[in-house]
Amino acid sequence: MANTFNGNGASLQVPGNNLNDAKQPTRPKEKLTRTLSASTLRDRLSKLAATPLNVPNPVATLHANVNFVPAKIPRKRRLQMLAVAVWSVSIVITTVAFLYVCSIPPLWPFLAVYLFWARCVDKSPENGGRTSQWFRSLSFWKYFADYYPASFLKEADLPPDRPYVFGYHPHGIIGMGALATFATEATGFSAAFPGIKPHLLTLASNFQMPFYRDILMALGVCSVSKQSCSNILKAGPGSAITIVVGGAAESLSAHPGTADLTLKRRLGFIKLAIQHGADLVPVFSFGENDIYQQMPNQRGTMIYAFQRKFQSIFGFTLPLFHGRGLLNYNVGLMPYRRQIVAVIGNPIHVERCEKPTLEELTRVQQRYIEELTRIWNTYKDTFAKARLRELNIID
């Protein structure tokens, strides 16, 4: 309070003029609060500085999840890997080669002649192809087969006095075992079955790709169309075709440790054999389903529905799979090194008939399934020790 004097000499007290009275009573508390907050903050920062940060090292994480190939690998294994890698991207290589040729104007006349000949003149894919024994016997294919390794087991002699229809099971993702056994001499097919001229069959669309079509035909690969099959079997004794019976639909069931075959409704190859008097030869390839890992796509899932729709539109499937890489063992699109053994069973003799009845087709099919089942039961404990379940005819 401040003192002032009135006219009578008495002092009066006037409130509000003393500077001490102007101080706000809450300021000391605010100052105390700020001091405590700063102290708390300092303590927390000290603790944070003393605690190491758990930031993952990306390089260490990569090495922990990816199994890299050792630096020192035998030259032979590197060549095997190279052969499989080249074949795995052969469509890409031939497509790039074709586009490169298209970029060179002086070569356009030759390119135009080649395309006209391939599309309008050359009917080899429907008439037995242009098999080159030299090309089938290249060392390249030996390295290719030894990568897995791929081989076959012969159960019976096949006299070259009649035609043959080989039924190959299972399809797998790509059918590498079928290629090694029936489209090359890497496993010694011609030496084991003298006089038999094998022709592995594939989709006719594969022969629409420039340059790639010529590689297929040099291997003896032909179109799987009905006309192509008939033309080959009509060529006479010793002519043989190999049909991967399950086709594209069966590739969706290709999971390691399983043997789910699409066979119940497949009567076309049996009818073809009867019409041409060709013996049926079941072939079961142990390990074909093990060289790739496919995403779970059980029936009823959205993935399975999409894959079947894709197949109905384009005529081939789109399996979602992975394998290994060039420099690692668990991430990539190259197949795993898994043994593939194609057991070539006993031939099933059929009587020639131009118009076989459904009863005859069913009877021969039953004999075929029995022989295929016998092969599985005989060799499953040798070549399929890691199986998850038994042989299953799913469709």
UniProtKB/TrEMBL annotation:
One of its GO terms (biological process) is glycerol metabolic process. It catalyses: an acyl-CoA + a 1,2-diacyl-sn-glycerol = a triacyl-sn-glycerol + CoA. Its main location: endoplasmic reticulum. GO terms for cellular component: endoplasmic reticulum membrane. It is found in: Endoplasmic reticulum membrane. Pathway: Lipid metabolism; Glycerolipid metabolism; triacylglycerol biosynthesis. The chain crosses the membrane at residues 81-101. Its EC number is 2.3.1.20. Catalyzes the terminal and only committed step in triacylglycerol synthesis by using diacylglycerol and fatty acyl CoA as substrates. PANTHER family: ACYLTRANSFERASE, DIACYLGLYCEROL O-ACYLTRANSFERASE. Belongs to the diacylglycerol acyltransferase family. This is Diacylglycerol O-acyltransferase.
